[in-house]
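<discrete_fold_record>
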Amino acid sequence: MRRAGLPALGVSVGVRVPVEPSPCPLFRLRAPAGLVRTLANTEDFDLRQVAEDRLIAAADSPERTLAAVRSTFRGAGSVELLSTRLGVRPRPRPWAALSRGSCSTASSSRRWRAAASTASSCSKRR
């Protein structure tokens, strides 16, 4: 598994972001060169260009992914599915506390709100 860039990015601004592997279907696609020049994230897929004419998508269904990619990008009508496999992708731990210096959140049923509140209050302290 590739190491996620999010933890390193967080460290660069003094925030610890816990990341763990998450199983997911991965689809390799053939696409026109340069269709996606970076990461693309929609509610249907996470997509990355991995070679000049190759994409990798993390999503639930190959059929829905193909349809979504074709309708999202201009010139994507020729995108085709090459392979599917079960893989892992790095995901922020859902209930983890984001911490900055001495700032951290308590573990509770309202963890998301607590994390957002703590992150906000930590950034105001700087």
Q: What stands out?
A: The two ends are 35 Å apart (CA to CA).
